[in-house]
Amino acid sequence: MRGKLLKLIILFTVISAALPSFAAVSFAQSPDFVKVGISYGSSAPSSATVSSASGLFIGSSYGDSLSKSGSALDGVTSVTLKRDSGAINVLDPDGNVLAVLTGDGTECIASEGYFTSGEPVEYKGKAYRGGIMPYLNSQGQMNILNYISMEDYVKGVLNSEMGHNSDLEALKAQAVTARSFAAAHEANHESQGFNVCTTTHCQVYAGVSGEYDRTNQAVDETRGQMMYYNGQPVAGFYYANSGGHTENSEDVWSEALGYLRAKPDEFSPNLEWTVELSKKELNRVLSGKIGDVKSVTIDGVNASGYVASLTINGAKSSITVTKDPIRSVFGSAATLKSRRFTIDTRGGSITYGFSGDQRASEVPDTASILSAQEESARNYYASGNVASEVLGNSMYAVSASGTSQIDLSGMSIMASGGQTITATVPSNEPPAVDPPAVDPIPPNPPSNGVCTVYLNSSSDVLIISGKGYGHGVGMAQQGAQQMGSRGYSYIDILKYYYTGIEVR
Question: What is the pTM of this model?
């Protein structure tokens, strides 16, 4: 890093919430059930309604399973969960208390049809398999969780993360990866009482509405399978497109994991993108932190071709951002699809390398070029010691005293060297002399990728041109689909993108 005077504290605070944690996993196989956070934290409700047309029961989550713990809800199709003095009351539609739950994450409300047909329960207009579990967090709020079998959870993930029309082998690879991810991240939201959330921070989970025959088939045909590395479940990170090369985990976040190693990716299809940001736009999102934006510098590019460090210099201070937060450094102005990018400018100027090799993107100075053209035109008609001058469409020789002239057009004239020259009538305009070619584009930038774009006018534009989509760690989903369509199996796909793993 260089030129770092001010850290982007607010940005890092937001981004840190999205960075992955690598939880220690105590089990050697897929857990049977997971807890998924649906409404929690600032979205935690004071009351929640749960319903099922076939009736409800209070379920127990002891032993990583779901079992019926009592008959207190017999015949009831809708209940309301409501906080009350460190516990949770279960109310019927008339407000009568049917049961009291501890809110410690061991009890849930499930459908009577769960054991016979897998019938879901409904909460806030959405259907969920398993049960709806209230949990009292440390602030006394009631978080709402979905307590669900791992297989049903993965069925609710696949379409959201890859799309149900994808190649079946790619979907099967995604199913194994989703299981592995959930298992390896069981402590992601431990302080809130659950394992994984429903957003891109973990995996996008849509409940029953996310299920399709094709994605369910992929789950069923890989039932219980996960990836392992040194006997432990793999944190199966994935993303859309590698741009031609995957990343090392430590080059994106912090921890070096042996199964997340960078490698060329021949299967991700070409995906190019461009973002253009004017100095005016950059000032809108950054001037409050660093003052008037003066320049943007790529400080370094790693061996995989990803930008490792980016500095934005302002009139007051500068921001240096490294690794994955680079994609969000421009705030609301733009989120970059990947870190495999280069920068250029329209209107500004750019230097390459640490030595500051200048490429002048300004308009070249043509004054000296035009002067040379004029001089060439004036001398064009001089031959030997005969001076020629353009006067209309005639050519004349002027006496030494300048008192008389002779029309030379078409005449033969002997020069001092003895050679004969035939005078010709020139055109009114001297011959054009093209200026020397000036290439505004510099030689190829240094392989280290270091360069700086300088922005002076509010209309100057920073041009960011990149490849790929996502953080680059683990499986590229579009590459997986290409592999599947070419006849590779889901095992082949997983072993291509994750180093040294086994699937079982």
Answer: 0.76
